[in-house]
Every structure is written in C-alpha cells, then in structure tokens.
C-alpha cells in the first residue's frame, strides 16, 4: 500500500494498476485528507480500487494560507485529480464531506466523469445569518472561531484549522449559488449520509438536494454522529456506502439507518 504517512495532512494515494474503479475523496473547508484516510485505507484493502485523497489548496498549513484561496482553486484542483483518475479507470466514485460534498456535486454537474456520489453532510448553503455580508465582513474581520471538530466520539480530532478565514467562507458562499442552479445536471446516483446532530451544516442543504436533484438520493441516517462523521461513531456505515457505490449496487429509495453500534443493517 505504500509507506506510512509522515504528516497527517499529506495527500493519500493508493494505486492499483489493474483497478477498474477509482475513488476520489474530498475533505471540507479548514480540514485535510486526515478525515478520510482511515476509510480510504479500509476500502482499498478490501476492494481492488485506486483511492485518492487530495489536499485542497490552502489547507494543511495555516489558516492564513486558506484566506488567500477560493472556491475555484479547490474545484479545479479536485477536477484535475478526477480527470487523472478517469483517464486510467473505467469508473470513478467521488465522495465528499461538507464543502467536499459541494465540490463532488459540482464535479458531477460540470463533467461526465463521475459515476456515483457519496456525500457526507454536504454543504450547499452556508448556515449563518450573516452569510450575505461575508464579502464585506472579510475586509475587516480576517477570521472567526473554528468550525472543525464537530465529533461525538470522545478523544477524536480532525486536526482542522484553529480559525476559519472569512474570505474563504465568502468564496464558498458565492459558489454555492451557482452549484444550486446546476444540480439539475447531476446524473450520477447520489447517496446522502446525514448525521442526526450537525452543528456545522443545517438541514436545509439536505432538504434542497432532495427536492432539486433529478434522481431521488439514497439516504443513510448516522444516528450517533455529528458533522465530521467520517471520524465518528458511524464511520462504518459510510464505508458501506462507499463499497456499495464501488460495486455499482442498486440504490434503493428506502432510508437506511445504522444500528446503534454504528453498523449498517447489511453488516
């Protein structure tokens, strides 16, 4: 599988030259590949797939670097990796957490290279009453409190930035409007993994996706997890969703609810 990581923020690539399927995993704003690495390794160990977890521009260093980046930087970095994977694989599954979910949707809306989507608490809105004022606020307030580490599992951290740069969030907010207008073009099947308690992304993002995607998404309710569910109690259920997407399993309309130990009913 390659050498162990020397830095928790480094990208992760596990390449299988004979793999027909690749999985692209995208982290959220102020986060890093760390949020996906355990699940990525698990899927790569169990299935003949190539896995890529890129580090999005401005992340993995200090929050001031993120303040100088914007949505286009993140989108085109993810798109470049998607195109690289698609060039050497028959199918590509894209998964995203939070802002990474928005990027995954945008890739599916603006390209034909995405065969399935697994979205974990995707953000298609910035849930803040002052969101409309972010462009102006960013001129005077460089950063606000951290939005990371919304995790129910004790002792777990996502190693996100200690501050949230306002300009970066303003860029995401602007881009989300365009994304919402493009949702009609998402043809890939979508699995929504939604935490029962989420202190970062409110319920209107999921509600909007239910009513605006051209195909009804499959939903998995993560009863014991908060926003960073890839590191939380129900991470195994997200792993099941990834495996199902890789296997191109039929996506039932019924909601799937994990057992209280974090296992999905299929386990």
UniProtKB/TrEMBL annotation:
<dbReference type="GO" id="GO:0016787">
    <property type="term" value="F:hydrolase activity"/>
</dbReference>
<protein>
    <submittedName>
        <fullName>Alpha/beta fold hydrolase</fullName>
    </submittedName>
</protein>
<dbReference type="Pfam" id="PF12697">
    <property type="entry name" value="Abhydrolase_6"/>
</dbReference>
<feature type="domain" description="AB hydrolase-1">
    <location>
        <begin position="23"/>
        <end position="236"/>
    </location>
</feature>
<keyword id="KW-0378">Hydrolase</keyword>
<dbReference type="InterPro" id="IPR029058">
    <property type="entry name" value="AB_hydrolase_fold"/>
</dbReference>
<feature type="compositionally biased region" description="Basic and acidic residues">
    <location>
        <begin position="258"/>
        <end position="267"/>
    </location>
</feature>
<dbReference type="InterPro" id="IPR000073">
    <property type="entry name" value="AB_hydrolase_1"/>
</dbReference>
<dbReference type="InterPro" id="IPR050266">
    <property type="entry name" value="AB_hydrolase_sf"/>
</dbReference>
<feature type="region of interest" description="Disordered">
    <location>
        <begin position="245"/>
        <end position="267"/>
    </location>
</feature>
<dbReference type="InterPro" id="IPR012354">
    <property type="entry name" value="Esterase_lipase"/>
</dbReference>
């Amino acid at each position: 599988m390659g050498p162990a990581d020397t830095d928790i923020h480094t990208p992760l690539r596990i390449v299988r030259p004979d793999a027909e399927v690749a999985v692209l995993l995208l982290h959220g704003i102020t986060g890093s590949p760390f949020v996906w690495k355990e699940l990525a390794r698990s899927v790569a160990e169990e299935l003949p797939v190539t896995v890529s977890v890129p580090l999005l521009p401005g992340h993995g260093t200090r929050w001031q670097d993120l303040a100088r980046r914007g949505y286009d930087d993140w989108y085109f970095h993810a798109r470049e990796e998607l195109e690289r994977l698609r060039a050497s694989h028959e199918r590509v599954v894209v998964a995203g957490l939070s802002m990474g979910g928005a990027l995954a949707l945008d890739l599916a809306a603006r390209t034909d290279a995405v065969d399935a989507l697994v979205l974990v608490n995707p953000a298609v809105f910035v849930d803040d009453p002052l969101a409309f004022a972010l462009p102006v606020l960013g001129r005077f307030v460089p950063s606000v409190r951290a939005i990371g580490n919304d995790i129910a599992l004790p002792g777990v951290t996502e190693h996100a930035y200690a501050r949230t740069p306002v300009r970066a969030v303003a860029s995401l907010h602007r881009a989300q409007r365009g994304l919402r207008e493009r949702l009609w073009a998402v043809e890939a099947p979508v699995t929504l993994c939604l935490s029962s308690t989420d202190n970062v992304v409110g319920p209107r993002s999921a509600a909007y996706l239910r009513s605006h995607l051209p195909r009804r998404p499959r939903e998995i309710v993560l009863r014991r997890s908060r926003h960073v569910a890839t590191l939380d109690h129900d991470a195994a259920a997200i792993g099941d969703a990834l495996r199902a997407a890789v296997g191109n399993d039929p996506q039932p309309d019924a909601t799937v609810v994990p057992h209280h130990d974090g296992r999905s009913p299929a386990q």
